Amino acid sequence: xxxxxxxxxxxxxxxxxKWSEKNIEDMCGNxxxxxxxxxxxxxxxxxxxxxxxxxxxxxxxIGYRESGDxxxxxxxxxxxxxxxxxxxxxxxxxxxxxxxxxxxxxxFTHEGDKVLLVYPSYHPFIDMIENNYRVIVPFRLNRxxxxxxxxxxxxxxxxxxxxxxxFCSPHNPTGIVFSEAELECVLTSAKERGQIVLCDEIHSDLxxxxxxxxxxxxxxxxxxxxxxxxxxxxxxxxIAGEHCAFASFSHKSDREVYERFQKRLYxxxxxxxxxxxxxAAYRDGLEYNRALCADLSRKAEKAASFIKENCPLLSFVPxxxxxxxxxDCSAILDKVIEDRNMYxxxxxxxxxxxxxxxxxxxVCMNDGxxxxxxxxxxxxxxxxxxxxDLLDKGLEGIKKAYDYITRQ
Length: 408
Fold this sequence. Notes:
alpha/beta; 7-stranded mixed sheet; 15 strands
């Protein structure tokens, strides 16, 4: 395994959304800011994925391709990575994560149903529930110390009238790896109330070595709640642009309903390059993935130490998984509002913090308001999935903005 995670891949001039100056300007008001926002990494893919793509391109024909090996490879990977044995009769392929979850939401809930959603929340989940005419019941994680925590008793109370739960484990944007007891709380409540749990586990393969992710489907083995977990290779192997997912069902009958509807929509197979990448990832990528997890853990600690030492009024919420971290800027919020009032041309009305760091530090991050409105307007989400060279520039940019506002 030869990947060097200390150096960033140069993506300038590519079609990468993350590096689009227009996208960066829309996000933070400064088209020249360095991008630390959208959830893909500026790190190399594995040699196996790259070489398999090159091999297929050199054939000179991109035609129809068999993909029958893909599901068995995914099932094998789940056993190796998570010690989880999946029943092939309860696993379905899906053409992308959001599509997979949205399809399940439409099939297994009805318009007007209440759906519990954990906040702060990845914004497309908010859109997904509202655009499909379901009703969001927000469950807000507790803010405790320098992190977030899950309150089981409050969860039981607030989820009482819901038909479904849309869960995210590990959680985006806080990076929490939920404990088995916390997952069992969700599942036990669901079993008692006849709820279905839809669980996005796209960040699950990136848990740090000191944390153990338990797949919801595994936690459910002795509970028997109705649930579906959704997995993908995209974050795990830094191939975010490929749309290939798997849905693992607690009930075979739900898988059958799901696949019948997929056939009606002709959504039953992956594209050519997607299949090549996912097969290489699940077949040969475990060593790469483990090395990546260790490196991301190191980078999270590096970022946390830098923020603590150089920006003491900011609170870096330590993630347990993946390459994203929430940063709490509440202590400087009033000063940033004053800066906006003095220089309104540098800001827009809604995304306050992303514009502050973009304008004053040259760093583009997702604004906290994107994850649930006013309650999170004092946060930003920082993507540290890059080489140390670029990470250092991002951290220095945060410090530059911090120094500017605290010296006013």
